């Protein structure tokens, strides 16, 4: 089956200004047969509705020699990606190299759990592409969920893309140029673009609706895994308090900044509900996949092979506890980090 991506006339996609020129505006035919080993992992019918292909990828879709590219040194490639990502967003409290590294580590946890629970072994090229996407998924982040909300718009990464475009699409553009430079094949680059697109955040907010990303819905295995790894719960309450204040107080979140510590803690509890929903969805997808492959009695939950469910349960118990010592820990850590973030 062939999937047609009409970059100029797709009414479901808001196109970033001054990026797609006439050459890129032509219709591009992208078939699953062009994607090789990546085809089963890219829901093209959904992906084509989310964003137009990034320009550098569009120009290479008809270059057969680039379909044979192979990355020869995975470790060096990922190190370069992490350093480049750091240089693109090094001035932010949350969206910086530490977050990129944490998502990278979370994706590794997911891959190990997936292989252990299902008994399947992912192709090394698939694994490398996923790990690369984890590192560069927020390439060039502006310190706000939406570029239109950035504090210093004159310092935006790739300023020519403007503010009426999702941060994730900007990351897709930058990441694809780097992926090409580092030797990833065209099919791998399509896969990487899809994985970054799957992390699109704030789709149901007013601003998400304004820039027309509210139609993005992620329901596939690797897309949901990327979303979960992007928000995987931290290992300690100290790290949790610091991260929460970094993103909600120091930076500009997709929702309104919590006015009080109590509101912030209530939002934290709701956010864990979002994480639990992603874990449940990921488990359902894996169980369905295994049953459809013939293992009709399969009922193992992938997320139980990760530390994430225990971490969520532990922190939720602390946040909702009536024990005075738990309340003391929560209010000292979250309260102190909040005042530090507020300067």
Task: Sum up the structure in keywords.
52% helix, 343 residues, disordered N terminus
Task: Summarize this entry quickly.
This protein is mostly helical. It contains 13 helices and two strands, in the order ββααααααααααααα.
Notes on the protein architecture:
The protein has a two-stranded antiparallel sheet. The chain has two domains: 1-220, no CATH class; 233-343, no CATH class. The chain starts with a strand and ends with a helix. It has 13 helices and two strands; from the N terminus they run ββααααααααααααα. The protein has 343 residues and is mainly α. Mean pLDDT is 91; it is low at 1-27. The longest helix is centred in the C-terminal third of the chain and has 32 residues, at 261-292. 52% of the residues lie in helices and 3% in strands.
Give the helix/strand layout:
Layout: E1 2-6, E2 27-31, H1 44-50, H2 55-58, H3 74-88, H4 97-118, H5 124-136, H6 167-181, H7 186-197, H8 206-210, H9 221-230, H10 237-250, H11 261-292, H12 308-319, H13 324-342
Antiparallel strand pairs: 1-2
Helix pairs in contact: 3-5, 4-5, 4-9, 5-7, 6-7, 9-11, 10-13, 11-12
